[in-house]
């Protein structure tokens, strides 16, 4: 870390525990506490060790972006501060005594952490303004198809004849003849699609394709939804976020290389996932997202 150039991230232990408890409980509330000692990577690290490493990277990145924001003069308005105070009060009021006992955090620490997170968000927004982050419906398009896979072209030609008959039940044909039990598929548009993708996106609503050869199999496709509106909207939002992240990375990475931030060496020493029985809070980030949802 080149010694004198590395600055230590300024988190309280309570703030570390908020992040640790949130991420621990997101998994533990679903998979139980048995998962923490499960081997999670080829190096033999446990799931707890892997998750702590991920949280460490997040905390370093958050502190780095917050430092950038302060240097760039990104400040919170009084209205934003009031909103963050209300958010902090709502989050804190929702904590049980077991949550508080495990995290040992005060409400003002929660407020400061939310301010840091919001300021980082604001920094990203301001630094990516003016860049082309638009995602078109065509670029994000998701369709739904049914597919029948056959092992030989002769079989495929026979089934295609049946599928093209008036009133043919494509799903029933698939259940009867397909060598692949997966009949229904969602497909996302891409500039680099395989033969199946190209054939699928060339279909109009309820149309049946010809025979498509790929990976040693012969496929017949039917388009059952030429525009999945809900799935397309979700993908559009995801792609826009990916574009924003990519745009910001071009700003963040050179800065992070010159302004190294590290966590205190003892950050995780007092964080034990086997403790805190009864602590179940997992909504620090989801509450923030819902509070500031557009």
Automatic annotation (TrEMBL):
Look up the EC number in the record and give it: 5.2.1.8
What are the alphabetically sorted keywords of the record? Isomerase, Rotamase, Signal
Q: List the molecular function annotations (GO) for this entry.
A: peptidyl-prolyl cis-trans isomerase activity
Q: Which residues form a coiled coil?
A: none
Top-level lineage group: Bacteria
Domain called PpiC: residue spans: 125-225
Q: Name one Pfam family in it.
A: Rotamase_2
Write down the InterPro entries for this protein, in alphabetical order.
PPIase_dom_sf, PPIase_PpiC, PrsA_foldase
Catalysed reaction, written as an equation: [protein]-peptidylproline (omega=180) = [protein]-peptidylproline (omega=0)
The entry's protein name is peptidylprolyl isomerase
Q: Which organism is it from?
A: Candidatus Enterocloster excrementipullorum
Specify the taxonomic lineage: Bacteria, Bacillati, Bacillota, Clostridia, Lachnospirales
